[in-house]
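quick one: thymidine-5'-diphosphate bound model?
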Amino acid sequence: MKNILLTGGAGFIGSHLVKWLLNKYPYKVVNLDMLTYAGNLGNLQEVEQHPNYVFEKGDIGNAQLLDRIMEEHAITHVIHLAAESHVDRSIVDPLAFVQTNVLGTVQLLNACRRHWPAGTSDRLFYHVSTDEVYGSLPSAGYFVESTPYDPRSPYSASKAASDHFVRAYFHTYGLPVVLSNCSNNYGPYQFPEKLIPLMINNIKHGNPLPVYGQGLNIRDWLWVEDHCAAIDVILHGGKVGETYNIGGMNEWKNIDLVHLLCHTMDHKLGRKEGESAKLITYVKDRAGHDLRYAIDPGKLREHLGWSPSIDFETGLARTVDWYLDNEAWLEAVTSGAYLDYYQHQYAHR
Ligand code: NAD
Ligand code: TYD
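yep, here:
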């Protein structure tokens, strides 16, 4: 039996993981989320009434709150996803990323130390991280678990710092930890500040599609539920103290991906082929824009038997269908504060 404290469960990946765990296991899942702009309880409607689900609204940086939750729910496992997660926002406000991603993670680690017996082997702190900590690859090569860290954005620097703290708590205090570093996720419920949902929303409304620089940057894309499946196998079979890289072996140049989305949506919206692609607009590049991320997930495949379950065209079509079918969700998250964000980020590009 596990009593899991899952942080950031109202966000994109967290909400999929909450549902994944509740649907598959009898564990108690306590979702601690501050409900920033990226957190949305609408993502969790189908499990709201689940008897093993508890929602706690609050900040991972609040030590008293953490003490109360650890004790009241007899937490045995932490799966830590809460974070500020968008690179462009980190360029505008790096301190918000230090606050949650670095200080918040250390607060959580401290709470585990306070509440778990020293030397315990039936507790686990699972830290969910990103491949962006490894920096930027040239056109060849892959990130492996031993690739030296070389973060280049405030976001990736803050995630790298948090990874280092998690490992430091393992080595210094013997806290049982495991880490994974994953490539770019996509799927339903992703906030439309990230490339794929932002482009879907703009294509739908016939708005310009802002491609940074020349659109030549490369990302490796993974279906969000395949990330959940990987977290599941690592949670249950991962070796304490180890790191596992998770990736889709699915690299796309941004411009090719945007063209694929345009093509898919022309078809789904009954537009003439090529109509949506006319919206593509090259805009000023992101500062310090990493050229390429690519993961070698060999360790995870060989040690724990994980591999991605669906191909990109299928996942992307499912994603587009979800956004088109869930107009109310999309409208709700793109009104109000989103319009200010969009204006601020894109007006001067
Ligand atoms: P997200 O931005 O969609 O969600 C983050 C969630 O954390 C939100 O619900 C937000 O309300 C919550 N949160 C933020 N600050 C908090 C705080 N101080 N206290 C409590 N809750 C807080 O992020 P996501 O894309 O779902 O990413 C989740 C995790 O996975 C992050 O740690 C991210 O670094 C990592 N990751 C994401 C990707 C990706 O492609 N999205 C890839 C690899 C790793
Ligand atoms: P993003 O989804 O922000 O993820 P990350 O930067 O963490 O990889 O961006 C993915 C890629 O798409 C990245 O190379 C930046 C690019 N991009 C655009 O070209 N236009 C946009 O409007 C956004 C949000 C991203």
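The longest strand covers residues 124-130.
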